[in-house]
User: Which sequence fits this backbone?
């Protein structure tokens, strides 16, 4: 893994693109939040390489419409769907049971769905919306699906984080932002939690001598529905200003490339973190990048894991 800000992509100076995705025939992939944006682009790319893609989303109508797009990208090969609301642990358990029943062997889980800087709200279980959805929902889903992943040598869990993790801090005294809510701080905490989850999961997989690996990625600044509450994207995607700001904002298809590399690059190792190679990792082609020093605090990782198990009542088989 790179020790600096990023690696040289593709050794000979070439850029890693969707055309570098190996054949995915026979692989089964679950992607959360695949109705639009990065999740949908990743689903289309993987399906076009032969994977059976399961789109997991909370709106059955939108998920079915997205599945049609994925099927079209795969020359008519059907895409599967699963109803999943990450803001409800009951829904997470039902979705996991449904997926495990239909697909007892999973090759890849992409924890992609998320919310970004909404007004204060809580999940059905009373968790702050961003921490509950972005971290706890995916933590629970991964734990419930992990037996099906462990059954497949070389399977992967990819969790999508954000550059926003750099401003994040795990506030154990107020994990749910009940006493004080700042949407940017809560978002940063949830994205930092995504990375700490990845690193602790990989440590546990290694200790258990499992062949499944955990990797992470971030999309840079991509134009997707996720940013609708942030305000930042208004100027970046403006009809007149957008072309001038191409260094700062990229398409959803480009934003999906780090996730796709984390999911499919044969050279990826457990704990790898991919992001764009451009200025401040806003845009560009996927390379190995360094996460914040805070994200590598093993003591906090272990404490967050224990808290997450307690809050979700989900334990892992590693």
Assistant:
């Amino acid at each position: 893994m790179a020790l600096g800000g990023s690696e040289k992509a593709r050794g000979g100076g070439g850029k890693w693109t969707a055309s570098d995705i190996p054949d995915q025939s026979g692989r089964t992939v679950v992607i959360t939040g695949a109705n639009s944006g990065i999740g949908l682009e990743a689903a289309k790319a993987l399906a076009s390489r032969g994977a059976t893609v399961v789109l997991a989303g909370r709106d059955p109508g939108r998920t079915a419409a997205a599945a049609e797009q994925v099927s079209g990208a795969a020359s008519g090969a059907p895409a599967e769907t699963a109803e999943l609301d990450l803001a409800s642990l009951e829904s997470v358990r039902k979705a996991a049971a449904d997926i495990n029943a239909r697909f007892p062997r999973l090759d890849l889980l992409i924890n992609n769905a998320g919310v970004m800087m909404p007004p204060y709200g809580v999940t059905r279980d009373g968790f702050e919306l961003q921490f509950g959805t972005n971290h706890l929902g995916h933590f629970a889903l991964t734990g419930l699906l992990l037996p099906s992943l462990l059954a497949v040598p070389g399977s992967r869990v990819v969790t999508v984080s954000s550059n926003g993790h750099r401003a994040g801090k795990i506030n154990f005294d107020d994990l749910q932002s009940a006493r004080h809510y700042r949407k940017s701080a809560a978002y940063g905490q949830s994205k930092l939690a995504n990375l700490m989850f990845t690193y602790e999961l990989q440590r546990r997989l290694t200790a258990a001598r499992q062949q499944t690996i955990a990797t992470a990625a971030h999309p840079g600044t991509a134009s997707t529905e996720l940013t609708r509450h942030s305000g930042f994207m208004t100027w970046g995607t403006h009809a007149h200003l957008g072309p001038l700001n191409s260094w700062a904002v990229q398409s959803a298809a480009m934003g999906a490339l780090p996730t796709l590399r984390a999911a499919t690059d044969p050279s990826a190792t457990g704990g790898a973190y991919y992001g764009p190679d451009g200025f401040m990792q806003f845009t560009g082609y996927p390379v190995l990048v360094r996460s914040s020093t805070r994200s590598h605090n093993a003591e906090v990782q272990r404490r967050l894991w224990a808290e997450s198990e307690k809050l979700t009542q989900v334990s892992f088989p590693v």
Summary: The first strand starts at residue 28 and ends at 32. The mean pLDDT is 91. The domain at 10-311 is CATH 3.40.50.720 (Rossmann fold).
